[in-house]
Specification:
- The chain is α+β, with helices and mostly antiparallel strands.
- The protein is built from eight helices and 17 strands.
- It has helices spanning about 55-70, 105-115, 155-160, 165-190, 230-235, 245-255, 270-285, 300-319, and strands at about 15-20, 25-30, 30-35, 40-45, 45, 80-85, 85-90, 95, 95-105, 120, 125, 135-140, 145, 195-205, 210, 220-225, 240.
- Strand 10 and strand 11 (about 125) form a beta hairpin.
- It is globular.
């Protein structure tokens, strides 16, 4: 298996490395970030024991495409994509909230709704809705950005009252969130997809707000196939979707939801290969482009050497 689950580079000017659930982020002179999108996969805030070949490339290239497609709305952190698995960009001071926007009653919002709640993050949800139904207007349901463990739901007023973000800046983040979601929804519709919900992260540099991290990838977003959506909704059937939800569903079917004492089910080579195939399907459906594997016959060592070489050359060009 040529999955990259760990990196340990020492780039010129590197002052720190942050290891997230999926990404390894290298700080270069406090000025640039090198974000290596690994093949690790997480669900229920747990990093699963096996990597998924090409998953990092899928996420990195989808994010790059959508960052480029939204630069007229606001600037973003991306400067270069020197390798299929890497984005190099500006280092920004991140806002300590994630902006989650939901166009449909699915996932976490549906679980809250089904439990009888009619507000989420201080936002009212209409009575009488069914799972996967479209909201009258998309709702923004922010979360705290936890360094470890679970992100927590939080309301706009709690964010402002706690000083996490000023009212003026938070309302600007809301405007950006709605505009980017609208753009993503329009692009998805051209591909026969519905952008159901997603999350965005923002930061500041020199007083300017930037869009950061990944956007509109299957890890950060949920997509439905538009064809048959209305019929499935009317019959109360499950929607055909493009997202990481299929991994969560497989885990839940095998008794794992990230709770204490639960064991991750065995990830056989067949299971891993199936997840790779689904991620490639996601890429091709979301972008409308054929996926070109970055290193089909390479060993992990060769891939790591390629990344190191490509990033080092990129950093020299940024000097």
């Amino acid at each position: 298996m040529n999955a990259i689950t760990r990196t340990d580079f020492a780039f010129e000017g590197q002052i720190s490395k942050y290891t997230g659930k999926v990404r390894d982020v290298y700080d270069i002179n406090g000025q640039y970030l090198v974000m290596v999108v690994s093949d690790r996969i997480s669900a229920f805030d747990v990093v699963l024991p096996e990597g998924i070949p090409y998953k990092g490339q899928v996420l990195n290239q989808i994010a790059a495409k959508f960052l480029d497609a939204t630069t007229d709305i606001l600037p973003n952190w991306k400067l270069a994509v020197p390798d299929p698995m890497v984005t190099v960009g500006r280092k920004c001071e991140p806002f300590k909230v994630e902006m989650v926007i939901r166009g449909y009653l699915s996932g976490h919002a549906w679980r809250e709704y089904k439990a009888g709640k009619r507000t989420i993050c201080g936002v009212a949800m209409p009575d009488g809705m069914v799972e996967n139904q479209k909201f009258p207007e998309p709702i923004i349901t922010p979360t705290t950005k936890a360094a470890e463990g679970h992100d927590e739901d939080i309301s706009k007023e709690e964010i402002i009252a706690s000083g996490l973000v000023s009212r003026e800046e938070y309302e600007q983040l809301e405007r950006y969130t709605r505009a980017i979601f609208q753009r993503g929804s329009e692009i998805a519709a051209k591909m026969g997809l519905i952008l159901v919900d997603t999350k965005y992260e923002f930061g500041k540099k020199d007083g300017v707000i930037y869009l950061m991290d990944e956007i509109h990838t299957p890890d950060s977003s949920r997509y439905f196939y538009a064809e048959g959506y209305a019929e499935r909704l009317a019959k109360g059937e499950r929607q055909k979707q493009l997202s990481k939800e299929f991994v969560r569903e497989w885990l839940m079917a095998n008794g794992f939801q990230g709770l204490q004492g639960q064991q991750v089910p065995e990830m056989t080579p067949e299971i891993v290969a199936g997840i790779t195939d689904r991620y490639i399907e996601l890429y091709e459906q979301i972008t409308g482009e054929k996926f070109v594997k970055g290193a089909e016959s390479s060993t992990p060592e060769e891939i790591l050497h390629r990344i190191e070489k490509n990033v080092s050359e990129c950093l020299k060009s940024l000097k």
